[in-house]
Design a protein that fits this description.
Two copies of one chain form a homodimer. The first copy, chain A, has 421 residues and is α/β, with parallel strands linked by helices. Chain A folds into two domains: 226 residues, Rossmann fold (3-Layer(aba) Sandwich), CATH 3.40.50; 171 residues, 3-Layer(aba) Sandwich (Rossmann fold). Chain A contains 16 helices and twelve strands. In chain A, the strands form three sheets. A five-stranded mixed sheet of chain A has the order 1-12-11-7-10, sandwiched between helices. At the A-B interface, helix 5, helix 6, helix 8, helix 12 and strand 8 of A face helix 5, helix 6, helix 8, helix 12 and strand 8 of B. Chains A, B: It is found in: Cytoplasm.
């Protein structure tokens, strides 16, 4: 269960209501026209999941349970969402498999990660929507050479999976070399793809409860399109209206396990909303990700006393289902902090969360709080959809193309020139 | 060796030069008056290091080399700097010891971290400048109970080290219970304390080359106070002058190993500069930390096409000393990316760095580039001092107290009330 509390003055008058209605229709149209595909990923995920389960029974390594290390080779949208879900749910998942992520072409990072992998028990999942991402293909080539995997060996190719657009270069390579492939719908962009094969396949191969993740996501997207999530649209409207005064959006999550989820949000938000709008203005909102209580000891100072240019969303987990307590131990000279003795760490963390939230509100900083009753696959599925829909809605109010990324391409052109001139 | 290249128009006219001169004098005065102590940490670190080496020979577990897991219990300034240096240098350090960090009171995070630790080979370093940080003392109590450590056992207390201000509650507790303590100079704030006992002790216990780290730091601070680092002051001047137009400072580092270093910078920058100035205005600059090439696939879009409200610092490592290459493997259908074949990953990553930097400059976004010839303890020491001095200099131009954190205290008061009302 998720709860949404808003402590900002959204001033939802007649004009706002009309604007919100228009935005909602536009999102409905995006969905029904089939132009934007992520809305339907939860629903379509169930049959994909069946396909993965079938694959587990036919792949010679998987059916004998020989695979322990699942190595995801992908960057940006091809890794961040999966990493986020993996970190959140791995402790509550019964699995003998670990996921590893090769994202960066940093040679120290590649070496460090590969040290942890046992080649003989590893499966490699190469993920590139376009099929020719330079980081991904380069690391894949390196893996092929390092582990002496041959395209000519049917057995070797049973340890490689490709996830890519149908018809891409990587897709054709897979086709020709008997590599199992799963496809990303063409109408789903990388940063919106976590509930496509991109996330579903690695997570399902590692026995994560993808079914519940999809259920939670589907419940939220249905609820939204049934018109029951007005607060999301009000928040999006507010954010777009105050974008000049509040150009920075802080996500302050009270659990270390959300570290990568927060990063996933940053990617989604930054790349989707930082655009030139249809009359040529640069628009966008700058996302910041913080973890409580750690970042209370640093960034909170800037939020409270620095320029009032930030909105803050606090994410709180009500019940961590981990009843460890601060012992009733009275330490000499430290009686000042004895008030916490006997309380759960859960209670302390949430009291810190509440104290921070109240302090922020006292300073008239626009804030809202999302509460998860607990960390479950369903709740994480819903939260993913919440943020994707929020991003789309703000994009509608900004009147931009939320789904492209022309700015990123400039750098790519320069890169190719450096090697081919 | 570090190189600093600025691609912004700092317009250093007569007025600017005077202002810079004034700021430089003020920083000199801060140092010589003994009011602010971090300037002298590198120099004083060598004798501290000797003390640690002596301690290694007297502690019953250390001298027998029985300790493999060094567990740092600390939050914010008491952990982030150490974590940063640890991650950067651990691969090049000959050690049989690992550092672990218990920062957050998140019960899932505590449980996850403690699963990796073997009690019998562990040493616990409790770090709190004030001596009564609620997160740190609570986790310490939990450790005491979980591992059945007794204050009455001299042997148990040989496995605990306290790092705190002289005279703090934790200091008195250590004194009474025969716990070895190292002190943080009273004139050094938490976020400026990485080169005090806070960082030196855990890193030296794990056999890191702290000597070279200190040397690099000392070289830089001396060079600065000899007046040889004018570019730093020019950058600080520029940042303070354009703070309204460019309220956000992005650090875009091209190496995954800098992940925690970047976070350390964010803490330092946000908590030091987000202040109310002497005429009552909220000032401050908002730091963002990015890792290349990963974040090219996300945040770069916002930098390039979003609002022009950001300055960017690119950090580049010239030589990763890891000659792994993209194999000369021509993959069917993927000939488009064959241009990279045979090149080092080092070359690819740096070409991506250059391409990003050039793209940013093309868009007239104020940018500068810091180049490290390689990741060495000396260079990291210098870079730490560079950022600390830059922070102090911007604080001077803002006319704020760079070293306090009143905003953080508001939340603390609320927290205590929740438990003691």
């Amino acid at each position: 269960m998720l709860d949404f509390e808003h402590k900002f003055d959204a001033k939802i008058g007649k004009k706002a209501k009309e604007s919100i209605k228009k935005s909602f229709s536009a999102l409905q149209k995006e969905r029904s026209s089939g132009k934007i595909g992520y809305y339907n990923l939860p629903e379509n995920g169930f049959s994909l999941l069946e396909e993965v389960e079938k694959y587990k029974k036919t792949n010679e390594y998987l059916k004998e349970n020989l695979i322990k290390d699942i190595v995801v080779i992908g960057i940006g949208g091809s890794s961040l969402g999966t990493k986020a879900v993996y970190e959140l749910l791995k402790d509550q998942t019964k699995t003998d498999k670990k996921l590893y992520f090769l994202e960066n072409v940093d040679p120290l990072d590649i070496t460090r990660t590969l040290k942890k992998i046992n080649k003989n028990r590893a499966m490699f999942i190469v993920i590139s929507k376009s099929g020719s991402t330079i980081e991904t293909t380069s690391i894949f080539k390196y893996i092929m050479e390092k582990y002496k995997l041959s395209f000519k060996s049917k057995s070797d190719m049973q340890r490689v999976v490709a996830i890519t657009d149908n018809g891409s270069a990587l897709s054709m390579l897979a086709e020709k070399n008997s590599i199992k492939q799963f496809n990303i719908p063409l109408n789903v962009g990388g940063r919106f793809s976590v509930l496509s094969a991109v996330g579903i396949v690695p997570l399902a191969l590692a026995n994560f409860d993808v079914n519940s993740l999809l259920k939670g996501a589907m419940a939220y997207v249905n609820s939204f399109f049934e018109g029951k999530e007005n607060r999301l649209l009000e928040k999006a409207y507010f954010y777009s209206k105050v974008a000049k005064q509040y150009p920075i959006n802080v996500m302050f999550t009270y659990s270390t396990l959300f570290t990568y989820f927060n990063q996933w949000y940053v990617q989604l938000w930054a790349e989707s909303l930082g655009k030139i709008d249809k009359i040529g203005n640069s628009v966008g909102l700058t996302p910041i990700h913080l973890i409580g209580s750690v970042d209370q000891h640093s960034f909170l100072q800037l939020i409270i006393q620095g320029p009032k240019n930030k909105t803050v969303t606090v994410i709180k987990i009500e019940d961590f289902k981990k009843p460890i307590k601060v012992p009733k131990l009275n330490l000499d000279f430290l009686d000042k902090v004895d008030y916490i003795n006997g309380h759960k760490f859960n209670t302390l963390l949430n009291a810190e969360c509440d104290a921070t939230y109240e302090t922020i509100i006292d300073e008239n900083i626009p804030a809202d709080c999302i509460t998860l009753d607990k960390i479950t696959p369903e709740n994480i599925g819903s939260l993913i959809l919440y943020y994707e829909l929020l991003t789309s809605a703000v994009g509608q109010f900004f009147e931009i193309n939320t789904y492209d990324q022309p700015g990123v391409e400039f750098g790519k052109v320069k890169l190719v020139k450096k090697f081919t001139k």
